Amino acid sequence: MRNRKLGVDSAHRKAMLRNLATSLVMHGSITTTHKRALELRTVADKLVTLAKRNDLHARRQAAQILFNVKDDQGQTALQKLFAEIGPKYTTRNGGYTRVNKTVQRRGDASDMAVIEFV
Q1: What dihedral angle (degrees, nearest 10) is formed by the CA atoms of 31, 36, 37, 39?
Q2: pLDDT above 50 (res 46)
Q3: Cα–Cα separations (whole angstroms), residue 66 to 33, 41, 103, 104, 107
Q4: pLDDT score of 1 more than 60
Q5: Torsion-angle region of residue 32: left (phi > 0), alpha (psi -120 to 50) or beta?
Q6: Burial status of residue 50 (CB atoms within 10 A of its CB: 0-12, 13-18, 19 or more)
Q7: Which of 6, 27, 37, 70 could form a disulfide with 115 if both were Cys (CB 3.0 to 4.6 A apart)?
Q8: What are the pLDDT digits (tens) for 61-112?
Q9: Which DSSP category does 7 fall into?
Q10: Phi/psi of residue 66, nearest 5 degrees
Q11: Which residues contact 118 (CB under 8 A, 6 or more apart)?
Q12: Strand boundaries in 40-117, DSSP class E
């Protein structure tokens, strides 16, 4: 596992990955740059592993990563992770996300990708 700097300092990188992880949990798939998607994959897989454990310590560890946002039904990202996403992957031993490259971004020709749960 290689830590990419992504052109930002460490605090910005941590906040960005937390935002991306929260959006991925809330929406199921997001579009971002290819390099960010590859870094997000490691964070998202760790979150799903915590959700599969489904104990209090795992919930508190996941709460340190995910932001406290609610969807239309009033369910937070943490609740959605542990109630819907975690139980779906109980028999799977890793590889919970998929990264598919898409077209280049028009403004700066950056490679874009869609990351989604398998």
Answers
A1: -160
A2: yes
A3: 20, 14, 29, 29, 30
A4: no
A5: beta
A6: buried
A7: 37
A8: 999 999 999 999 999 999 999 999 999 999 999 999 999 999 999 999 999 9
A9: T
A10: -80, 145
A11: 92, 95, 96, 97, 98
A12: 97-104, 111-117
- Tokens, residue 117: 């749960």
**At residue 2, does pLDDT exceed 80?**
no
Give the single-character DSSP code of 76: B
Residue at 108: amino acid letter: D
Measured CA to CA in angstroms, residue 10 lies from 22, 78, 84 at distances of: 18, 24, 31
Given strand 97-104, what is the order of strands in its sheet?
A: 29-33, 111-117, 97-104
Identify the structural domains of the chain with CATH numbers, from first to last: 10-117 (3.90.1030.10)
